[in-house]
Design a protein that fits this description.
Length: 171
C-alpha cells in the first residue's frame, strides 16, 4: 500500500497506514475490506440511532419491532431472539419496555398458556411504517454513486463474506 496520502483516502486508508507502520511484517490488506464494512456499519447504525431518538425507541428495540413487523404472525420471544441475535434476557428487556410504551403486546399461545407471543400494536406498526422507509432511503443515499451493476457485484461479494461468517469459520 502506498504510504502517501491522496485526496481519495478515507479513514481506513489512514488506519491501515498506521497498522503498517506499527506492524510492518503483517499483511494488513484485510483491513481494506473488513475495516470498511465495520466503519460503514457503525456509521449507518449511528445514523439510525439519531433518527430513532425522537421516537424514544432504541435501535435494539426497533430491531425487535422490525422482526415482529416482518412476520405474518405473532412471534415467541425465542423466535425474536433468533432473528435479532440478542440474548433471551435482552429480548425480554426490550419487549418489556416496548410493552410499557404501548408498541408491543403480549398474548398467550392458544395451545399452551405458558407460551407468550409478541406482536406489534397499532402504534408499534405505525412507528415501523414511518421509520423503516426512512431507513431504506438513508441506505439508498449511502449507495449513491454506484451503478446497478456495481450494487449487484457488491451484494454478491458481501454475501460470500456473510456466508463465511455464518458458517462459523474458525477464529
Amino acid at each position: 500500500m502506498d504510504q502517501a496520502n491522496s485526496p481519495e483516502d478515507d479513514f481506513i486508508d489512514k488506519v491501515r497506514r498506521e497498522w503498517n507502520r506499527a506492524y510492518p511484517d503483517i499483511d494488513t490488506s484485510p483491513v481494506e475490506v473488513m475495516g470498511r464494512i465495520t466503519r460503514i456499519s457503525s456509521q449507518s447504525l449511528h445514523q439510525l440511532d439519531r433518527a430513532l431518538a425522537p421516537s424514544g425507541v432504541s435501535r435494539a428495540e426497533f430491531d425487535v419491532m422490525s422482526a415482529l413487523a416482518r412476520s405474518d404472525r405473532p412471534l415467541r420471544a425465542s423466535e425474536v431472539t433468533a432473528v435479532t441475535m440478542f440474548s433471551g434476557a435482552a429480548t425480554t428487556k426490550h419487549a418489556d419496555r416496548l410493552a410499557k410504551l404501548g408498541l408491543v403486546e403480549r398474548q398467550r399461545f392458544e395451545r399452551d398458556g405458558r407460551v407468550v407471543l409478541l406482536q406489534l400494536t397499532e402504534a408499534g406498526r405505525a412507528l415501523v411504517e414511518a421509520e423503516f422507509p426512512r431507513r431504506v432511503e438513508r441506505d439508498r443515499r449511502l449507495l449513491s454513486g454506484l451503478s446497478e451493476d456495481e450494487k449487484v457485484q457488491l451484494t454478491a461479494l458481501l454475501k460470500r463474506i456473510s456466508v463465511n461468517i455464518d458458517a462459523g469459520l474458525p477464529d
